[in-house]
Amino acid sequence: MRAHIITIGDEILIGQIIDTNTSFIAKELDKIGVEVKKTTSIPDEKEEILEALDFASKNADIVLVTGGLGPTKDDVTKHTFCEFFNDTLVENKDVLKNIEDLFKHHVKKPMLPANKAQALVPTKATVLMNKYGTAPGMWLKYDETVFISMPGVPFEMKALMTDEVIPRLQKEFNRPFILHRTLHTYGKGESEIAATIEEWENNLPKTIKLAYLPSLGKVRLRLSTKGNDLKNLEAAIDSEVIKLKELIGDIIYGYEDDQPLEHVVAELLKRKGETLAVAESFTGGQIATAFTAAPGASKFFKGGIVSYATASKIDVLNVDKALVDKYSVVSAPVAEAMALGAQKLFSADYTISTTGNAGPTKGDSDAAIGTVFISIGTPHEIFTHEFHMGNHRERVLTKSVNKALELLQKEILKN
Amino acid sequence: MRAHIITIGDEILIGQIIDTNTSFIAKELDKIGVEVKKTTSIPDEKEEILEALDFASKNADIVLVTGGLGPTKDDVTKHTFCEFFNDTLVENKDVLKNIEDLFKHHVKKPMLPANKAQALVPTKATVLMNKYGTAPGMWLKYDETVFISMPGVPFEMKALMTDEVIPRLQKEFNRPFILHRTLHTYGKGESEIAATIEEWENNLPKTIKLAYLPSLGKVRLRLSTKGNDLKNLEAAIDSEVIKLKELIGDIIYGYEDDQPLEHVVAELLKRKGETLAVAESFTGGQIATAFTAAPGASKFFKGGIVSYATASKIDVLNVDKALVDKYSVVSAPVAEAMALGAQKLFSADYTISTTGNAGPTKGDSDAAIGTVFISIGTPHEIFTHEFHMGNHRERVLTKSVNKALELLQKEILKN
Fold this sequence. Notes:
Two copies of one chain form a homodimer.
Chain A: E1 2-8, H1 10-13, H2 21-31, E2 35-42, H3 46-59, E3 62-66, H4 77-85, E4 89-91, H5 93-107, H6 113-116, E5 120-122, E6 126-128, E7 137-142, E8 145-150, H7 154-172, E9 177-186, H8 190-196, H9 198-202, E10 209-215, E11 218-227, H10 230-248, E12 252-254, H11 261-272, E13 276-280, H12 286-292, E14 301-306, H13 310-315, H14 321-327, H15 332-346, E15 350-356, E16 371-377, E17 382-388, H16 393-414
Parallel strand pairs in A: 1-2, 1-3, 3-8, 13-14, 13-15
Antiparallel strand pairs in A: 4-5, 6-7, 7-8, 9-11, 9-12, 10-11, 15-16, 16-17
Helix pairs in contact in A: 2-7, 3-4, 11-16
């Protein structure tokens, strides 16, 4: 089963938006054993869309298309589909009712002709009802290829994929199992890891593929395999994971995919019934956001202080002004006092505090750009670490957030 | 000038990462008048890479490739380039020196053979030096097409694009001007806007293209044009912007591209010399993160409280416990008290506070999922607004952050 994903929209080609739909669709397909061989983004132009549909129809069994289904004149996907499939548009009563209901209960404004026109669909298409918007999804079989068209609005597309597209694909096609095991590591670079596991990698069975995914301060190792015998596949891939653990167990912090470090830490805290609070200066709320983006954070996350201005460190976190004057606001003593302040304010078992200068210019301190102090408060002590993370603002911020989570996890595991 | 972008990496095809490189590259090309006609992501497989290079060489003048240049065995781009261009790899002394320097000053670990092999480049390629990593960029002309290969690590690729690729493209090719004007609106849906501006849209010159970009609670309208006479292009597109302002000026909040609402608000505050603090419950630090992600926030952003747990609203923000007991923690009086608490703690001119339930389950309050209260504190008053944002967690969070910024901007503009 080879799938192609086509995302349509000038906004992608001029870089005005980041295409997040492709990644979501690819992940959902991968879970049910459909292999994505190519993804393409093209402009809202009839000729480009026709060419992409033609290429995909010759090279893929399943073609998933998003975008170009809106009510405005720049949206041309539906008409281009009709041209490609030699079809015409007819009004679909169920879709019209869905649009009328959406307007009645949610939009609460009168329907316009353009909204009504959203109910027009190609006669050969099976409608996939869109719960969250007026543009319906469509399912169309042509020769041996299934074409699926979905709106480009991410949450509408996601609901359609989950509720309509995936169940239909599961029914329509026999698929192999695709398995991945991803190991999250920190502390070593990819070439260093590769050298450590070289012999093991050279002896990997041909049916198992290894990939290295480096990002700031972390490397993910992904093992992939596919086939029809789930039990054998699992046994084979898991025995390689066990061998890897023996070789580099000291730098692995997590196993499952979709498991960012903040979730690993959250699970640890919830299991222990312990709580966390944060005091962030230059990271500006990013650590709090990481912990609260997923549901269930109220079970362990008490809250945080974003003490961006120096005065707020003193006024809100009760950092002693004398410390700031003596050591400057970017210093180990201030980081430690911030962690202590947060621990007291929120009565939390663990705290993270950050103070640093991410650049591009120096701030309230003379510390060089890239200088970062991170404190981890535990029920027993406060540990403070100093880092120099270079002069690339975005990189300093991301590396610092990652490093803070890594340090916190290590302390929790010690206790 | 037609460009294609090819991103290589299994991690994209299985949905393990979101491809942000394409968007960055496309935007930089657009700025210098290079039109991206297609972007493609393909796996780390020789055959797929060869096919994509072949297709691009026939359809594009410039082909930009990222990924597959790492030191590990899963990276095959360089060898595949050699096959496609009928070339061989040789060690490049400058690249080797760059790698040695990086190891000496930054990695501070011994170099491994795999790192040294990064200095091998195709003989026909011009090296583009990578300041931040060991994999060099490459520039290769073949028939009439320029091929550019860059590492997939985003900050390495970005530096190469900015410092090496863009200046070389500007020197090598005559390019037209591509102009965009993007208007940010809030408060009306795309079909409603389309109906309001229908006559104007029907009379738009053929050389100017209009696109609607809806996202939660906001619609961006983008006008695009291209040609060789910059002055005439600017006059033509700007006269259409003026006409649009007359038609929908009441819902426009910003003009430039790359200008998220938080930057518009930041500029307003800096110009007035006024300050902001936030008190976030269910938004969990996202508003603080929005304001502090860009440099210069210390000029107006005093800080914030993420009072996720109910107790922290009482303990840290001094919300009266009686209010929580009487109205529940998701209520207008609590939102107001939070805004007041933040204003006092941080001595800020303006404050935003949020309390609500984003789901998927009910929390410390009986309020229905999707119920949101946002308060805006100004130097004179506090205004509180109630919203019902549906039951999609991610959507409730994003809509609430957008709505809070919109409400704040309106209050600042009144004062």
